[in-house]
Amino acid sequence: MLFGDAVSKDDLAPDAYGSVDELVAAFGLNTTDKDLPIEVQENVLRIQRELFIVGAELAKPKRK
Predict the structure, then answer these.
(1) How far is CA 46 from the centre of its chain?
(2) What DSSP state is assigned to residue 2?
(3) Full-prediction pTM beyond 0.90?
(4) Domain map of the chain by residue range?
């Protein structure tokens, strides 16, 4: 988790932000195709940025 806080083994957050991170990586891998239209590349980059924010929000410590 962000800031090194401990997480319970039954907490779903690490799985959630791990999945988001994998999705960001998959989008990035697909943009290596040089035949991809620039509009698609720009949309993928925008989606990656949004997903990165989602992952960061999921990694924030929960308020008690």
Answers:
(1) 12
(2) G
(3) no
(4) 11-59
